[in-house]
């Protein structure tokens, strides 16, 4: 039997509670779809002040902020009327807006 000690290359990120929504897509992808990510080490810890994420180099490359093309100011409400036949075409955009909105 041969024992090898590998040099760890882990990055530690600190995410503020208010800024977590910017990183939800890449973090959920690494957590729920590991076969689609080249990240081999992933740890997500909630602390009293913020969130701590530990990743390997490949995971660090995959983490980038999510910028969605549909944004609305937080002090304004948008009321939309959608025809039933057009709903399937924009359903994913609507879900993204609901999921990634900071409020």
Number of helices: 3
* Helix content estimate: 25-40%
- How would you characterize the largest beta sheet? 3 strands, antiparallel
Q: What's the Cα radius of gyration?
A: 18 Å
CA distance, first residue to last residue: 55 Å
Question: What is the strand arrangement across the widest sheet?
Answer: 1-3-2
Number of domains: 1
Please state the overall shape, judged from the principal axes of the Cα atoms: elongated
InterPro entries: CASTOR1_ACT-like (IPR049479), CASTOR1_N (IPR040778), CASTOR_fam (IPR026249), CASTOR_mTORC1 (IPR051719)
Domain CASTOR1 N-terminal: 9-64
Domain Cytosolic arginine sensor for mTORC1 subunit 1/2 ACT-like: 68-101
GO biological process, one term: negative regulation of TORC1 signaling
Task: Walk me through the structure.
This protein is α+β, with helices and mostly antiparallel strands. The protein has one domain. It contains three helices and three strands; from the N terminus they run βαββαα. Strand 2 and strand 3 form a beta hairpin. The longest helix has 14 residues, at 87-100. It is elongated and about 65 Å long. The protein starts with 9 loop residues before the first strand and ends with a helix. 7% of the residues are buried. The mean pLDDT is 73.
Summarize the structure.
With 103 residues, the protein is α+β, with helices and mostly antiparallel strands.
Which SSEs are present, and which pair or pack?
Layout: E1 10-16, H1 24-32, E2 42-46, E3 50-56, H2 57-62, H3 87-100
Antiparallel strand pairs: 1-3, 2-3
